[in-house]
Amino acid sequence: MEWNFRSAEELAAALHAGEVTSVELTDEAIARIERDDPAINAICVPDFDRARAAARDADQARARGEDRPLLGIPVTVKESYDMAGLPTTWGMPQHANYVPTEDAVQVSRLKAAGAVVLGKTNVPLMLRDIQSFNEIYGTTNNPWDHGRTSGGSSGGSAAALASGFGALSIGSDLAGSLRTPAHFCGIYAHKPTLGLAPTRGMVAPPAPALPVDLDLAVVGPMARTARDLALLLDVMAGPDPLTHGVAYDVALPPARHDRLADFRVLIIEDHPLIPTGSAVRAGVNRVAEALVDEGARVERRSPLLPDPTEAATLYMLLMMSNAAASLPIDGYEQLRTHAAALSADDRSLDAARLRGMVLGHRDWVVANNRRELHRHGWRQLFAEFDAVVCPITPTPAFPHDHHGGLENRHIDIDGVEYPYFDQLVWAGVATMPGLPATAIPAGRSPAGLPVGVQLIGPMFEDRTPLRLAELLEQKIGGFLTPK
């Protein structure tokens, strides 16, 4: 039997019933990677010997009567997570030989849950691109069209799942890095509420693995089904045992509803700062029509929605102030000079990004206070709605584009070019206020490429968009194997 495209939930049931062993699942996954990955290049650091040993251990544990959430299930891990004995480079050539001695907290949780780690998946340089390529490991191709990107920065993980290389993967998300690859590759991903899943050990080399509370960035699950996302999130969620975990545990509230008919959903298909491409618009409307068909309350606008233009500006300020923190002082001073020359009337996203890179602490506090006002606005909105459905990016996966600096690239939206980074405004809708967002497949473009949408839910009510994703999967279908 072909197991590589079965869900983790199905594999767990088959393992429990004795229909297959972890060794068999692992050998089959490795064989598929060895056969198909040369054309995809998703698995940049294979760990097959240790995977086979872990599979043998899992089978022995099951024979002793043990049963853990992921016992014996093959998975992958984004390259940016520390794994003892394997390189963590973040695609930076100067750190090609950096090998940590401890596992990231999320890798430890995977292993404690019984997962069999097949290896690590490819990323862009410093995780700072919507494509996954670097000088060390090369380019990861989209399984649906090898001439197109798989997305970034968790593009290797998304391509691996779409190709049948393991049942689950863990990634991270600051600018859509879980959601965009899921959208481009036709899989599922969940950006958890900010702070729900600890990030220790998901750190650029050679920095130490400290329990830092990151601003904006999260780690989260990727899968081929919505139910598998919830399964993996349960493994990942909960405070770091070195800090908050000393005092408390996590208890997420249940989903607000169990039927599509009971959901109250706001549909947003347009953003004031960038157009929505026709293929993505069709995906959003496919979901909207499915909800209407099931009797859900669906609205197309609400005065409760926090101002999307200000939200995008705040997002760029906060994101870029983090990104520029590691710049050398001479480069930083040049940026300060450029930012000072900006007109006070320049409210473009380019200007917001430049101002963000040199944001002083006083201005950061002002921006952060504005973020809290937006969070308050979202709380009011989620008193009237249960979820928001909107795009992840304006287009399906685009052709590989590795030319020039990121600031000089453009994105083609139905024949018109826009600044490359402007497409991140959709990721920022959920990221800036720290809201949970589930990426789901929502059909195919006229060219046959996957199209996804994101389901945004209330803060710390992650189970609500996850349950909505599961119900929509039953209604409109989900993952399809690339041809």
From TrEMBL:
One of its GO terms (molecular function) is amidase activity. InterPro entries: Amidase_CS, Amidase_dom, AS_sf, FAAH2. It comes from the Bacteria. Residues 24-464 form the Amidase domain. Keywords: Hydrolase. Gene3D superfamilies: Amidase signature (AS) domain. Its EC number is 3.5.1.4. PANTHER family: FATTY-ACID AMIDE HYDROLASE, FATTY-ACID AMIDE HYDROLASE 2. This is Amidase. It comes from Nocardia fusca. The lineage of its organism: Bacteria, Bacillati, Actinomycetota, Actinomycetes, Mycobacteriales.
